Amino acid sequence: MYKLINKDGNAKRGEFKTVHGTIQTPVFMNVGTAAAIKGAVSTMDLHEIKTQVELSNTYHLHVRPGDKVIKQLGGLHKFMVWDKPILTDSGGFQVFSLAKLRKIKEEGVYFNSHIDGRKIFMGPEESMQIQSHLASTIAMAFDECPPHPATREYMQNSVDRTTRWLKRCKIEMNRLNSLDDTINKNQMLFGINQGGTFEDIRIEHAKKISDLELDGYALGGLAVGESHEEMYHIIEKTIPYLPLEKPTYLMGVGTPENILEAVERGVDFFDCVYPARNGRHGHAYTNKGKMNLLNAKYELDSGPIEENCGCPACKHYSRAYIRHLLKAKEMLGLRLLVMHNLYFYNTMMEEIRDAIEKNCYQEYKKVKLEGFKEYNSKS
């Protein structure tokens, strides 16, 4: 159940009630692909860094350890010891990005596992069954993530198939939620809007899937090679055709700048590997931009990554010490940077929610973007 608290322009401040707790939106979901945040970050840590939603990957968990194993162990929440909402993606993106050999048919996709090469089939019903075994809070519909660029004909055929698959997902999800042995009988389903950078295909698809009255709607197939301007344009043109009273989710995006721009256009949910991945490569996100702690100028720097930051890294450790850990290839350095970056993202989302409530989002966004300019990626 989504409740719109305030609108500031097109920016939305809402609450999304789920069986695993209420999500304050806009929200950034912290990515734990294989039921863990890369960088040795535990679910206890996630509470400390203000995580609201954890995102896990259907395909990876199906391949290892196996969704049936997780079901036998009580579902993903129990397995990874996490009591807040979890969103599982459908596995569609991984099927299309990882599988070198694949055949797309009306029933689904035939492909080989990227781990051991074994043949796997996944279609809408299989994806829903796997996600039901995982017992996540929110399940994503199984869709095709078309390549970029793609011809108009390919894109239209792909989107039409995704629509047919979505209807099958909804039927199967309703069936699974009615079974006695289903762990989470209140599992929600989000549909995915596709269409690449074809504005009219996006809009028509948004209208069609809105009629299905799902729990939420995502924009997929963006940040796959198009320019930021193209992405913002598609978001701006498509969101008005998705239900205002349901959450919208921009999949796999992005940088702090991307998030600020997309919130302005009406997006509620975000996820991206950037904060964790960049942390593992020695980069820290700050209100002055992204800094590279491997740089020699931090060798004797006794200050925190960022003044007045409440994350576990900044509360206790210096830039010099974290730089030493990175240079010595000690895992603690990566862990501290990942925690800092996720804390930075989660705190920024708090600020965004506050600004929308106070009807000063434009001013907040302008100040935030201006601040990022002080450092550059080589700082």
TrEMBL record:
GO terms for molecular function: metal ion binding; tRNA-guanosine(34) queuine transglycosylase activity. It is an enzyme of class 2 (transferase). InterPro entries: ArchSynthase1/Queuine_TRR, TGT, TGT-like_sf, tRNA_ribo_trans-like. Keywords: Glycosyltransferase, Metal-binding, Queuosine biosynthesis, Transferase, tRNA processing, Zinc. Its cofactor is Zn(2+). Its EC number is 2.4.2.29. Binds 1 zinc ion per subunit. One of its GO terms (biological process) is tRNA queuosine(34) biosynthetic process. Zn(2+) binds at C309, C311, C314, H340. Residues 10-370 form the tRNA-guanine(15) transglycosylase-like domain. SUPFAM superfamilies: tRNA-guanine transglycosylase (SSF51713). The active site is at D89, D271. It holds the Pfam family TGT. One of its GO terms (cellular component) is cytosol. Substrate binds at D89, S90, G91, G92, F93, D143, Q194, G221. It comes from the Bacteria. Pathway: tRNA modification; tRNA-queuosine biosynthesis. It catalyses: 7-aminomethyl-7-carbaguanine + guanosine(34) in tRNA = 7-aminomethyl-7-carbaguanosine(34) in tRNA + guanine. Residues 252-258, 276-280 are annotated as: RNA binding. PANTHER family: QUEUINE TRNA-RIBOSYLTRANSFERASE. HAMAP family: Q_tRNA_Tgt. Homodimer. Within each dimer, one monomer is responsible for RNA recognition and catalysis, while the other monomer binds to the replacement base PreQ1. Belongs to the queuine tRNA-ribosyltransferase family. Catalyzes the base-exchange of a guanine (G) residue with the queuine precursor 7-aminomethyl-7-deazaguanine (PreQ1) at position 34 (anticodon wobble position) in tRNAs with GU(N) anticodons (tRNA-Asp, -Asn, -His and -Tyr). Catalysis occurs through a double-displacement mechanism. The nucleophile active site attacks the C1' of nucleotide 34 to detach the guanine base from the RNA, forming a covalent enzyme-RNA intermediate. The proton acceptor active site deprotonates the incoming PreQ1, allowing a nucleophilic attack on the C1' of the ribose to form the product. This is Queuine tRNA-ribosyltransferase. It comes from Mobilisporobacter senegalensis.
